[in-house]
Write a structure and sequence with these properties.
Elements lengths: L2 E5 L4 E4 L4 E4 L5 H11 L8 H6 L1 E3 L5 E11 L2 E14 L12 H4 L4 E5 L5 H13 L5 E5 L7 E2 L2 E2 L7 E5 L3 H11 L4 E4 L5 H12 L3 E7 L3 H4 L3 H8 L5 E8 L2 E9 L7
Parallel strand pairs: 7-13, 7-14, 8-11, 8-12, 12-13
Antiparallel strand pairs: 1-2, 1-6, 2-3, 4-5, 5-6, 9-10, 14-15
Helix pairs in contact: 5-6
């Protein structure tokens, strides 16, 4: 199971890579409130910052996304009320899934690319485990608290013995903090997208730290049309671009390009 979709006045939808099951059940407002309160120890509306991001993260890296009525003030979202839909995304560990890319990840700068729900975070987590288990110092910037699934200062998911996890901070802030305080050899972070994310990557590389990160996309042609990513490609920042894909519910490595944008695999 990968997602549980819950919508007010509708049925429950269970989604995996191979199936899509509908369970007859008339979801009510009380059902949605109960789930959110249970998931957040009855403090859902106290988690203002996460609410405004559109999701809350649970123990072990599971995540609940939601939609509802946005409250806008001066063109800025300040609150979300009348929650109408939930998307419970279930974090998965697949130990050893990064074996297929092992020769591309040690002491290299790597960009993992795929459409949503194809396994970037799962692969990234196992890369952290593999690198860290080889006594390489890994700093993980877990902005959405999905990679390590930390709870009470301890990782719930296996990211290796030599990984240090910094949660709930931006990549820009996290990169500076890790470099100053933990002297990582590799920084691993979840999806990049904002201008400051690209600045954080460049800052890490200037400090002699390798970076492994992810972005949404399906081809070199597609990601090359985005201004910030094109800049990184032109500057040959990444040693490898690894594309993940899915067919008939099975995830696989579709293509690997080197820094010259030449096909390796």
């Amino acid at each position: 199971m990968e997602e549980i979709r819950i919508r007010k006045g509708k049925n429950i939808q269970l989604i995996s890579g191979e199936s899509n099951i509908v369970i007859p059940y008339d979801i009510t407002s009380n059902d949605i409130d109960y789930i959110l309160n249970l998931a957040t120890d009855y403090s859902f509306y106290a988690n203002t910052n996460q609410i405004l991001e559109g999701f809350v993260t649970l123990k072990k890296g599971h995540r609940i996304g939601f939609t509802g009525l946005g409250i806008i003030d001066n063109n800025k979202l300040i609150a979300l009320r009348n929650i109408s839909s939930l998307n419970i995304r279930i974090a998965r560990e697949v130990i050893g899934c990064s074996d297929v890319v092992e020769k591309y990840i040690f002491y290299k700068n790597v960009l993992l690319i795929s459409p949503p729900m194809v396994g970037k975070t799962t692969m990234l987590r196992d890369i952290a485990r593999k690198i860290s288990s080889n006594k390489v110092k890994v700093g993980i910037i877990d902005e959405r608290r999905e990679i390590a699934g930390s709870y009470d200062g301890r990782s719930s998911l296996d990211v290796g013995d030599c990984s240090d996890v910094l949660e709930n901070v931006s990549k820009k802030t996290g990169t500076s903090l890790l470099i100053r305080s933990m002297s990582p050899q590799v920084i691993i972070t979840d999806e990049i997208g904002k201008e400051e994310d690209y600045e954080a990557i460049e800052n890490a590389l200037l400090s002699g730290v390798n970076v492994i990160t992810t972005v949404h996309g399906s081809s070199m042609e597609e990601i090359g049309k985005r201004k910030n990513i094109k800049r990184l490609i032109d500057e040959k920042i990444f040693d490898y671009y690894i594309f993940l894909s899915m067919k008939e519910g099975k995830r696989y490595v579709k293509e690997v390009y080197d820094r010259e944008v030449m096909l390796c695999k």
